[in-house]
Amino acid sequence: MYFLGNLKFYLLVIFLIIYILSPFDFFPGFIDDIIAFCALWYQWRKRNIQKNQAGFSSHGPTEERKRSTPGVRSQVEEAYRLLDISPGASWEEVHKVYKEKVMKSHPDKVAHLGEELQEKAKEVTLKLNKAITIIRQHKKA
């Protein structure tokens, strides 16, 4: 469907440009060329507005589109899964669960245990920090 919309737009643009440049006129003078140019400008503007509303712009994707990309969405879902809470949880609930999990797995809490457990605790704490950062960015936006 998107392809057909693009095809119609480009065919119309090509037709209007050829008409404006051709010596053939429906009306004498430049009146019809001005009308064709206005129609061309209108179609072009309408297309840009539709693109912007769909999350595109001439400067790249908007913030909303960046947040809704599959990679970002899966990171947010993974962060919630790591904290073992639902995505609908409030920031206070997220922060509370984060603190509880960090308190259990902080490397200082397992300093008296073996080096292997300290490394594992360090990895878990880093993952939790990354998860809370991702959720914070997602909640902010």
What's the SSE blueprint?
Blueprint: H1 2-21, H2 31-53, H3 63-67, H4 70-83, H5 91-105, H6 115-140
Description:
The protein has 141 residues and is mainly alpha-helical. It folds into 2 domains: 2-60; 67-140, Helix Hairpins. The protein has helices at 2-21, 31-53, 63-67, 70-83, 91-105, 115-140. The longest helix has 26 residues, at 115-140. The radius of gyration is 28 Å and the shape is rod-shaped. The two termini are 31 Å apart. The mean pLDDT is 79.
Strand percentage lies at: under 5%
What separation lies between the terminal Cα atoms? 31 Å
Radius of gyration, whole Å: 28 Å
What is the correct CATH architecture of the largest domain?
A: Orthogonal Bundle
The unreliable regions are none
Secondary structure class reads mainly alpha
Mean pLDDT: 79
CATH class of the largest domain: Mainly Alpha
SSE run = HHHHHH
CATH-defined topology of the largest domain: Helix Hairpins
Helix proportion: over 70%
Number of domain modules = 2
Label the overall shape. Answer: rod-shaped
State the helix count: 6
The count of DSSP E runs of length 2 or more, i.e. the number of strands, is 0
Biggest beta sheet attributes: none
Please sum up the structure shown.
Helix content is 73%, strand content 0%. With 141 residues, the chain is mostly helical. It starts with a helix and ends with a helix.
List keywords for this structure.
mainly alpha, 141 residues
